[in-house]
TrEMBL record, chain A:
<keyword id="KW-1133">Transmembrane helix</keyword>
<keyword id="KW-1003">Cell membrane</keyword>
<dbReference type="InterPro" id="IPR003838">
    <property type="entry name" value="ABC3_permease_C"/>
</dbReference>
<dbReference type="GO" id="GO:0051301">
    <property type="term" value="P:cell division"/>
</dbReference>
<dbReference type="InterPro" id="IPR004513">
    <property type="entry name" value="FtsX"/>
</dbReference>
<protein>
    <recommendedName>
        <fullName>Cell division protein FtsX</fullName>
    </recommendedName>
</protein>
<dbReference type="InterPro" id="IPR040690">
    <property type="entry name" value="FtsX_ECD"/>
</dbReference>
<feature type="domain" description="ABC3 transporter permease C-terminal">
    <location>
        <begin position="179"/>
        <end position="302"/>
    </location>
</feature>
<comment type="similarity">
    <text>Belongs to the ABC-4 integral membrane protein family. FtsX subfamily.</text>
</comment>
From TrEMBL, chain B:
<comment type="function">
    <text>Part of the ABC transporter FtsEX involved in cellular division.</text>
</comment>
<dbReference type="GO" id="GO:0022857">
    <property type="term" value="F:transmembrane transporter activity"/>
</dbReference>
<keyword id="KW-0547">Nucleotide-binding</keyword>
<keyword id="KW-0132">Cell division</keyword>
<dbReference type="InterPro" id="IPR017871">
    <property type="entry name" value="ABC_transporter-like_CS"/>
</dbReference>
<dbReference type="InterPro" id="IPR027417">
    <property type="entry name" value="P-loop_NTPase"/>
</dbReference>
<keyword id="KW-0067">ATP-binding</keyword>
<feature type="domain" description="ABC transporter">
    <location>
        <begin position="2"/>
        <end position="226"/>
    </location>
</feature>
<keyword id="KW-0472">Membrane</keyword>
Length: 303, 226
């Protein structure tokens, strides 16, 4: 225990004495960790958007005006029994008109155009939700191939699918770029830690020489450098936690504007997964710094 | 205490620092190793402290064949062998007390023992009054005495002195040699590597002369003959 405390003391001394080296090393580690967190943030936001859009995707199958109640019921039963379909609900043409009015309540042109119409321009409609949004094409194909195809006036489901594809494509590109940045910063951090430990070994060559001379164990000579690299990772993690919460606080109002229709709390997202995210980041940072310092020690510290 | 059997150190491609050297240094002996630069004196010291491995032969210290020493045993060996050097190897930012205490700290000695032992060894070398000074505040002779005090901290059986008076004037040289003799009389085997003629002639002890990595002379009470 006494020996460990002394090793820790030497490591802390090195950490503060080489202040500028420490600052550069910790900064690069913070950048590497921060880029990982930006990646997590973007992934969380895009996943949330995609999930929300998935929930909102449905097909409105407008029926021909000649369809009888029996036809509608039979068609509804057919659609319900299709394996890819999750739910089917019926909207009368009055309900469809009401929904349309509500949707365009802020548009006076549409409101006045509707009020001038004597007849309801809409027909009865079936609203179909699929278990998996990618199955909509298949469902429509099955309907077209069925005996009920003549009951279908038109259908509309293209817009949400486009949004999903767009978000998914942006998310994939951002994720790839983010991984590239995180790997790049990790590599830079590896080299910086390597160089820092190398310089620290060089500045301590007299002390190391005396330690060897008087019979200090190899463990005792090497351990302060390993502990020093763990300290870099630890301090970088603490700064990174502060930075990411600051970043979320700055980002949240903009995100609120951008994602007006989506309910997503990034702070809660990180707080709920605090141990998982930051614990894993700490382990990764420690592995990176220990490996890097071990290489430097192996290369430059002869015991 | 120290036995060399056919000890050879070859630096590639073909430079022999030591070539088939046979020696036997007894317990509590005081031996001077002399020879011109590049004759293998320092290589011998470096092999005795396991900083270098012999190419061939055996190097036995206290019954322990250190030519085949395992890396993890090297610190144990070094605690049994005190070494002093021409350049003192003191840490300039530490006081005399801290310099010696450092040697104990890094070996896991308790604080209470450090507080007890450091003044003791400083008393042996006559520097107890300068315990709080820094190395640059001492003369060369005093700095070497600190080096000797540090080398004695683990009560070694052997003291290796590699040109310990190389940076000192004649008065300080005599003081250091007198101190080494005193340590030897207290029971420590001393191996002095030097090319200072005055020192060797003053000692009137065993002198081993090396030339081109070979022992060319071994006198019980020798003189400097190069």
């Amino acid at each position: 225990m006494l020996t460990f405390l002394r090793v820790l003391k030497f490591a802390l001394q090195d950490f503060w004495r080489n202040f500028w080296l420490t600052l550069v090393t910790v900064s690069v580690l913070v950048l590497a960790l921060f880029s990982v967190n930006i990646l997590i943030t973007l992934k969380a936001v895009s996943d949330n958007i995609i999930d929300s859009v998935h929930d909102k995707v449905d097909i409105n199958i407008m029926l021909v005006s000649e369809a009888t109640e029996v036809d509608v019921n039979n068609f509804k039963t057919f659609v319900s029994n299709t394996s890819e379909v999750d739910t089917v609900s019926f909207l009368s043409k009055e309900m469809v008109l009401e929904q349309f009015k509500q949707k365009n309540i802020g548009n006076p042109d549409i409101q006045s155009a509707i009020s001038e119409l004597e007849d309801n321009p809409f027909n009865d409609t079936l609203v179909v939700k699929a278990g998996d949004p990618s199955d909509y094409d298949l469902i429509l194909q099955k309907i077209q191939a069925s005996e009920y195809s003549s009951l279908v006036d038109n259908n509309d489901f293209s817009d949400p699918q486009k949004i999903i594809s767009f978000v998914q494509s942006v998310s994939d590109k951002v994720e790839k770029f983010g991984i590239f940045i995180a790997v790049l910063f990790s590599l830079i951090a590896f080299l910086i830690v390597f160089n820092t430990i190398r310089v620290t070994i060089y500045t301590h060559k007299e002390e190391i020489g005396v330690m060897r001379l008087v019979g200090a164990t190899n463990w005792f000579i090497r351990m302060p450098f390993i502990l020093e690299s763990v300290l870099y990772a630890f301090v970088a993690l603490l700064i990174n936690i502060g930075l990411i919460y600051l970043f979320i606080n700055i980002l949240t109002p903009y995100l609120g504007t951008f994602l007006a229709n989506y309910d997503f709390d990034l702070t809660a997202y990180f707080s709920d997964r605090f141990l998982l995210i930051f614990g894993l980041e700490f382990v990764l940072a420690v592995v990176l710094t220990i490996l890097s310092s071990a290489f430097a020690i192996r290369r430059y510290l002869k015991v | 205490m120290i036995k060399l059997r056919q000890l050879t150190k070859l630096y590639k491609p073909n430079t022999y620092a030591l070539h088939s050297v046979n020696l036997h240094i007894k317990d509590k002996e005081f031996v001077s190793i002399i020879g011109q630069s590049g004759t293998g004196k320092t290589t011998l010291i470096r092999m005795l402290t396991a900083e270098e491995k012999p190419t061939n032969g055996e190097l036995i210290v206290g019954g322990w064949d250190i030519s085949r020493i395992h890396r993890r045993d090297i610190p144990i060996l070094r605690r049994q062998i005190g070494v002093i050097y021409q350049d003192f190897k003191l840490l300039p930012q530490k006081t005399i007390f801290e310099n010696i205490a450092f040697a104990l700290q890094v070996c896991g000695t308790s604080r209470s023992k450090i507080m007890k032992v450091v003044p003791q060894v400083l008393r042996i070398v006559g520097l107890e009054s300068k315990i709080s000074r820094y190395p640059w505040q001492l003369s060369g002779g005093e700095q070497q005495r600190v080096g000797i005090a540090r080398s004695l901290i683990h009560h070694p059986k052997i003291l290796l002195a590699d040109e310990p008076t190389g940076n000192l004037d004649s008065i300080n040289t005599r003081e250091i040699i007198a101190l080494l003799k005193k340590i030897n009389e207290l029971g420590t085997t001393v191996m002095l590597v030097t090319h200072d003629k005055e020192v060797v002639n003053l000692l009137k002890k065993r002198v081993i002369t090396l030339d081109h990595g070979k022992v060319v002379s071994d006198q019980k009470v020798g003189k400097y003959m190069l």
